[in-house]
C-alpha cells in the first residue's frame, strides 16, 4: 500500500478571515501553489452526507468567484457522468451550468 498527501495551508487575519492560501499535492508536483479559493467535499458514510470546506481570500474578486462556480458546475457534470454513466442527468447539470453562466453574466 502507498500513501500520498494533499495539503492546504491557510493564513488567517486577526478576524480569522483567510488572507493567503497555498496547497501541495505530492503526486501532482504541486508545491506551495497559491490559490484564492478552495471548495472541498468529503463523504461521511455514517451520516450519508457531504461535509464541506469552502474558503476564499479577501482578494478573491467576485467575477473570479462566479467563474470558479461555473467551472465547478461543469466539472460536476463530467464527474457525475463518469461515476454513474447517466448521460441524461449529466447533461442536465451541464445545461444548468450554462444557465448559471448566463444569469451571473460571466464573460466567456
Briefly characterize the structure.
The chain is of the alpha+beta class and 108 residues long. The chain has helices at 62-84, 87-103; strands at 6-12, 18-25, 30-35, 37-44, 49-56.
Note down, in words, how this protein is organized.
- With 108 residues, this protein is of the alpha+beta class.
- It is 37% helix and 34% strand.
- It contains 2 helices and 5 strands.
- It has helices at residues 62-84, 87-103; strands spanning 6-12, 18-25, 30-35, 37-44, 49-56.
- Strands 1-2-3 form a 3-stranded antiparallel sheet, with no helix packed on it. It has a two-stranded antiparallel ribbon with strand order 4-5.
- Helix 1 packs antiparallel against helix 2 (87-103).
- The longest helix has 23 residues, at 62-84.
- The model has no long low-confidence stretch (mean pLDDT 96).
The major beta sheet can be summarized as:
3 strands, antiparallel
The count of β-strands is 5
Low-confidence stretches: none
Order of helices and strands: EEEEEHH
Bin the strand percentage: 25-35%
What's the alpha carbon Rg, rounded to whole Å?
16 Å
Termini gap? 44 Å
Strand order of the largest sheet: 1-2-3
> Level of helix content?
25-40%
Overall, the morphology is globular
Q: Helical element count?
A: 2
| Average of per-residue pLDDT values | 96
Amino acid at each position: 500500500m502507498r500513501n500520498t498527501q494533499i495539503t492546504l495551508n491557510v493564513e488567517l487575519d486577526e478576524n480569522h478571515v483567510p488572507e493567503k492560501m497555498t496547497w501541495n499535492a505530492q503526486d501532482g508536483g504541486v508545491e506551495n501553489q497559491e490559490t484564492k479559493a478552495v471548495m472541498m467535499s468529503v463523504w461521511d458514510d455514517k451520516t450519508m452526507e457531504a461535509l464541506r470546506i469552502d474558503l476564499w481570500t479577501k482578494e478573491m474578486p467576485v467575477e473570479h468567484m462566479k467563474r470558479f462556480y461555473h467551472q465547478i458546475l461543469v466539472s460536476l457534470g463530467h464527474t457525475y457522468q463518469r461515476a454513474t454513466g447517466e448521460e441524461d442527468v449529466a447533461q442536465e447539470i451541464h445545461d444548468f451550468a450554462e444557465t448559471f453562466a448566463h444569469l451571473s453574466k460571466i464573460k466567456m
